[in-house]
Structure formats: structure tokens, C-alpha cells
Amino acid sequence: MDKETPLTEVAEVLHMNSGTGGTSYATNSLLQQTVIRMTRPITEEAIRKLHTSMSFPAKLAVADLGCSSGPNALFVVSDLIKFVGRLCDEQAHCKYPEFHVFLNDLPGNDFNTIFRSVQSFQERLNSEYSVFINGVPGSFYGRLFPADSLHFVHSSYSLHWLSRVPEQVVEANKGNIHMARSSPEGVLVAYYRQFQSDFGSFLKCRAVELVAGGRMVLTYLGRRSEERDSREAGYIWELLSIALNQMASQGIIDQEKLDSFNIPQYMPSPTEVEAEVKRQGSFAIDRLEVSDVSWAVCNGELSGTDECNMENGAGYNVANCIRAVAEPLLVSHFGAGGVEVIDEVFRRYAAIVSERMANEKTEFVNVIASLSKKLASPAH
Ligand SMILES: C[S@@+](CC[C@H](N)C(=O)[O-])C[C@H]1O[C@@H](n2cnc3c(N)ncnc32)[C@H](O)[C@@H]1O
């Protein structure tokens, strides 16, 4: 980063590609939807336990934090409402609660696309449900809701986004754009410290906002290994870094800008998540699990078909998935280069990813924590 450029807060620039077009998050979030489906049994178990411990209140307040836009935002909510309905149906005299649903994301998120689909969403739901949908713009690293107002919090594939790239990283991570195997130890530690600070703030805020006994299911893009530079965590970014470095060496993008570009993400191990939850002290860990999801999931039904085996086919879909997530960050950092440059970045990236997918095991690791707020939590 050049000396005059201030560090950018992620909240000001991060958002997934908006709308419903070819490069939008809405069109390229099958991977994330698969992860939501994979973690459904854990979410359902948490809802069942919530019901057992406190019976559903007349007004059930649930929040999805980092909801983004597109089908996944309301997919989570619809699953949750139907499951509560099923639980209620299992019992005599159980009246469906009124659902107060809060969809949170950063202010740059395309809330309009979600809002436009609310009416058809409500029409598809059983008319016996009363559902009130609210958009809540703001960072989940700060307070978003009144004290003691939420019963259940869900967050999937969002909490690995940090509130900022630590300053030490910008100076010391040239040649890389994330925590790579060639990053200095200081860079890895700085990223970790930022994760500790951010996740600590997140837990502190939710501890105020959830009622006692309230529950959270949090899914991270994470890692199994305790090695912070392990390949499983940052590999997807390492490959993007190869494409960007090629383009910088050919003068297509600015080398200095590339030297100061870093992805504000930390993919924690289960041990690291556990350590922060214990340190903050307000939540008990009900479950802490790890699972894997293949990069090929980005290809959905096409996986393994001829279409997927086309040159760059498999990598093309993964590249689109990452483009939907990272394009606004790239554009904000590299500035005016035009659509052609971004197209070229992701064309090269798709080729690199395809080659790796054909020759290596390529998986994302999910770390899932199911937590409940202790009846007596530490002073806020
Ligand atoms: C990959 S998307 C996941 C969206 C959705 N949960 C899903 O599973 O498809 C991550 C979302 O987290 C949001 N996000 C990142 N940091 C955030 C923060 N500090 N506060 C609120 N949202 C945040 C991003 O803007 C983005 O929309």
C-alpha cells in the first residue's frame, strides 16, 4: 500500500456481486447453499433444543447474519420456519409463533434483490405462518439488535470475513494476497490476532442480544489443521494470486497495487473457534464439527458430466463462485481497469483452478459451531 492510502475498512467495500446476472452472487452461490444443506441437521438440532429448553415464545426472533443476496438468504429462513412448524405439529396445543426474521449484512449488500423476493417467498410458505422480514444493515462485529431480543442466530460462510486486513500484513505479505505457505510468520500471527479480536467482539455483542438459553449455529470456511499456513485454508486465494502476479509481471495490473492487496479472511480451526468461545465466556459449546465440501460442488448438477470436463469447465464455475465474492474487493483496490481486466483475471484463474482440480484433491473445509447462551453470562 502506498503511504498515502489509508487502510480501508472492509465494511466500506465488501459486498458480494449484486443483482441476478451471470456474475452475481445470486447466480453463483451453489457451493454456499450446499453447505447450508449439509449443516441443516445441526441447525435443526439447535432449534429442537431451543424448543425443549424454553418452548417457542409467541414471537420468535431469528437472525441470519451475513445473509448476502440471492436464494440462500431466504432459503435458510424458509427451512427454519418449516422446521419450527413441524416441531409444533408434533405437539398438542402448540401454536405457531409469529416469526420476526432479521436479515443482516453490510450496508453495500444488495438488500433490494432480497426484498423483491419476499412477497413470493411468503406466498410459497404455508399461509398459517406469520412472518415479518426485516433487513438489518451493519457489521456483525458491532451491536445490531436490542438487548435480550433474539432467540436464534444463524450465520453461514460469513464469519471468516475479518473487519480489516491487519496493518502488519499490508507491509509484509508482498507476493501473496492471503495467508500463503510463503507468508512470513508475522503475517500469519497478525491475521490470527485480527480473528481473535473480531470473533471476540462478535460473541460479546451476541451475548447481549440473545436471550438466556438462546442459540447460535455458526459455519465458517475453516481448516482442520492447526498450521495457519496450511494448504487447505488459503489455497483458493493462492491460485488467484498466481493469476494476479502473472498479470502484474506483464504490466496489465499495477505491481505496487498488487503488493498491497490482501484478502480480509481468516479460516479458523475448530480449536481456535473453541478457544475464543471459552475466552469470551458467555456461550456453551453444544457441538463443534468439521466437514469437507468439494470445489466441484460449484458446478452443481454438471459435476462429472461432459460439460464439466470441457477445457476450463470445472474451474470456470469455481472461478465464477470466487468472482461473485471477490470482484468488488478487487475493483475497489485496483480501481479503473475496466471489465476487461477483471474478465482476464478470472479467465486465467479458471484455467489454473481447472488444472489443479484435475490433478489434486480440492476441497473446502467447514467448521461448524452450535452454541447456547449460558443462563448467567459474564458482565457485558
Ligand atoms: C459468502 S457470503 C455468504 C452469504 C450467505 N450466508 C450464504 O451462505 O450464501 C458472506 C457474506 O457475509 C457478509 N459479511 C462479511 N463481513 C460482514 C460483517 N462484518 N457484517 C455483516 N456481514 C458481513 C458479506 O457481505 C457477504 O454477503
From TrEMBL:
It comes from the Eukaryota. One of its GO terms (molecular function) is methyltransferase activity. Keywords: Magnesium, Metal-binding, Methyltransferase, Transferase. It holds the Pfam family Methyltransf_7. Gene3D superfamilies: Methyltransferase, alpha-helical capping domain, Vaccinia Virus protein VP39. GO terms for biological process: methylation. The keyword Amino-acid biosynthesis does not apply. This is Uncharacterized protein.
